[in-house]
Write a structure and sequence with these properties.
This protein is of the alpha/beta class and about 220 residues long. About 40% of the residues lie in helices and about 15% in strands. The protein has eight helices and six strands; from the N terminus they run H-E-H-E-H-E-H-H-E-H-E-H-E-H. Helix 1 runs parallel beside helix 2 and helix 2 runs parallel beside helix 3. The mean pLDDT is about 95.
Length: about 220
């Protein structure tokens, strides 16, 4: 169904929650609001600003949707000044029609590139969920693309089927395979890699942001 009307006080309340929990690093994400003229970026930008205002010193990692390629929307996020920009590719391009209908692989890469061009000193981050039917070589191709488009940090985790209505798991990637992919990613130049069955987009995000090794 159609989402409810925007809650204009959500940014303030989100910042209040960050303050109440005493966070020094927070990851902000959202559902896609493609039905809105600005894709919801007004709320996005105000949430980042409110956290910076109410919790000085707290790093904000913005895990954003693609905003359907709208660069004015991306600029609003840029102007709000997140400390990290994250946008997940999720899977290999040949599986997009099945796993990410409506998404654009090249467009997601270009979003990361354009943000990095505007904010060269701000780390960029992306993630993949493995086990949907991809091969290790196809994963490596995506990692090469991410580096070419100036993605700095990476997460690789195992896809798990949330319900019978979701895509089935095609394979369970072994811990050794995750370790090998992490080694390969390091050789490609990613500054920090979290790779393992239980890794998710925000897995030890604070440690990754600090440049620490994450297992």
């Amino acid at each position: 169904g159609r989402p409810a009307q925007l809650d204009e006080l959500e940014p303030y309340r989100a910042a209040q929650a960050v303050k109440a929990m005493g966070l020094r690093h927070c990851v902000i994400t959202s559902v896609s609001r493609d039905e809105l003229p600005d894709g919801g970026t007004g709320i996005w930008a105000e949430t980042i600003r409110q956290i910076h205002h109410q919790v000085p010193g707290c790093r904000v990692e913005a895990l954003i949707p693609d905003f359907q390629g709208d660069r004015d929307a991306l600029q609003q996020v840029i102007d709000a000044g997140p400390e990290i920009l994250a946008h997940n590719l999720e899977t290999i391009p040949s599986l997009y029609k099945k796993a990410r209908p409506g998404a654009d692989y090249k467009g997601s890469l270009e979003l990361i590139r354009d943000f990095k061009a505007a904010c060269p000193d701000v780390p960029t981050k992306s993630g993949l969920m493995l086990g949907l039917g991809e091969t290790d070589e196809e994963i490596l191709e995506v990692l090469r693309d991410l580096r070419e488009y100036n993605c700095d940090s990476l997460t690789l985790g195992q896809y798990l089927q949330p319900s019978i209505h979701h895509l089935p798991v095609e394979r369970y990637v072994t811990p050794d395979a995750f370790k090998q992919l992490a080694d390969d990613a390091k050789k490609l130049g990613f500054t920090n890699i979290a790779s393992g069955p239980m890794v998710r987009s925000s897995y030890h995000a604070d440690l990754q942001a600090a440049g620490e090794e994450v297992g």
